Amino acid sequence: MKFSRYTTDKETLERELEDLSYIPLTASFAMNHHMFSAYASSTVVKSPEVAIRGRWQGIDGNFVSQEYLLNFRPDGRALGFQMGVRRFFEPDAVSNSARSYLREDVSEAVVLPRPKRVKTSFGSLVAERRSSRNFVPAPVSLETLSTMLAHGAGVTGHLKPQNPADPGGEIGVRAAASGGGLYPVRLHLLVNRVEGLDPRAYTYQPHSHTLRIGPTIPQFAELCWSPDFDVADASFCIAYEYDVYANSRKYGEAGLAYGLIEVGSISQNLHLARTSFGMAGCDQGGYRKQDLERAVGLDGVIKHIVHFSVFGTQG
Ligand SMILES: Cc1cc2nc3c(=O)[nH]c(=O)nc-3n(C[C@H](O)[C@H](O)[C@H](O)COP(=O)(O)O)c2cc1C
Fold first, then answer.
1. What is the per-residue pLDDT across 34-93, written as a single tens digit (0 to 9) for each?
2. What is the C-alpha separation between 24 and 114, in angstroms, rounded?
3. How far, in Å, is the centroid of ligand 1 from the Cα of 39?
4. Measured from the CA of 286, which atom of ligand 1 is nearest?
5. Which stretches of 154-285 are DSSP H helices?
6. Coil, helix or strand for 303?
7. Measured from the CB, is residue 227 less than 6 Å from ligand 1?
8. Atom 10 of ligand 1 has which residue's CA nearest to it?
9. For residue 220, how many other CB atoms are within 10 A of its CB?
10. Whole-prediction pTM value?
């Protein structure tokens, strides 16, 4: 039947809509599953559709993450500065990254043993890595922990950029890539059962390959409760800290995305390394962020815990 598009007659329209029943369905889908941004009031996208759609939406109930993505500007020119690796070797960038070992406090740190070389093939590790929540309360060795940390976030090389301001300065580069070599992610260990280590918090210092001793965590099992396993059976957990200022001074809002990407790379390295030891391990989306930050001494404003992984002996 021919659809009279411009009819204003209600009965005709209803009859035609009955024949073309997909039309109201489509309209309803469009209304409920937003074709355009629900964040039009705050997004930088200025298309008329977005502006109109935005009028229909309240600002309550927006996902901050979607709003962030809608406002994401990938072009350095739009951010008012040049970003990108081309400037990585320029003096100001180099000065930011070089000699970062000086920030490590080794005075009372635990020196980790030399990491082992993982011999299992990369293909096998990737194929065999599985999240396992089957922990038994048995300790892992300090050498195992050392090897995991070295492969996860250890310093694996040195760049020697020509910097007139600092001719001897080197940049220690690590197992996982980092936007601009700024390394905004730090690893906090919550040790439960590792041979030779007191159960408490530690911070991994990659340049010296040491653990800075942190506070004891009496509420360890509470901070990462899971319905699937008892975290008290795990050997250690890793809380990933993202320091907003470490890379956002260069990358603006994009810094968060880069930080989270880097957390993912480190975490994958850690899981591949623990797979080589036949260990159990699992990422944990649910952890008590604020309590955890307080426990390890982070302000939760500039420095945040953004991810959590549990490792232990396989049952
Ligand atoms: C960011 C993230 C959060 C996760 N959170 C949990 C969690 O809270 N509890 C859990 O048991 N597994 C968690 N996992 C593990 C996933 O369930 C697991 O990776 C997925 O089921 C695929 O299985 P696989 O890792 O064995 O390949 C998480 C994984 C990621 C990457």
1. 444 455 555 555 555 555 555 555 455 567 777 777 777 656 555 544 445 456 566 766
2. 67
3. 30
4. 8
5. 220-223, 244-251, 254-276
6. strand
7. no
8. 284
9. 19
10. 0.81
